[in-house]
Amino acid sequence: MRIVVDTNVIASAIYFEGKPYELLKLIMEERISAIASKDIVEEYEEILARLQQKFPKLSKSVPFHEIVGKLIIINVSSDIYVCRDPDDDKFISCAVDGKCVYIVSGDNDLLTLKNYEVIEIITVAQFF
Questions:
Q1: Dist CA 71 CA 110 (whole Å)
Q2: Least confident of 50-54, 64-68, 77-81, 94-98
Q3: CATH assignment of the domain containing 72
Q4: Whole domain around residue 82: which residue ranges?
Q5: Residues 7 and 34: beta-carbon distance below 8 Å
Q6: Residue 2 buriedness (CB in 10 A; 0-12 / 13-18 / 19+)
């Protein structure tokens, strides 16, 4: 199964565990394939750095470089503009080009879409 994971889910998985961490474990064990683009990985890195700076006492459950090593990084050629937050369109474009089944997110700007073509946009709880 191929999925795109939104930044908020990755951050929650690394710092706060719970269901997002369970999803991350599936990715780390290569039981599901997480697809990302260069832009998505850069966003992950930027947000995680900001969180680490803001909350220096938070500890990571999995080092970021190990997560990146498990992602399937693709070149995205689709230019899809359907999200009310244009920064989130990259997740949809990546899911389309990566032939994904789901976008897993906690972001209401994505979740309100519910789907794009055959790709379902769901929460971590819905994924499980």
A1: 21
A2: 50-54
A3: 3.40.50.1010
A4: 2-127
A5: no
A6: middle
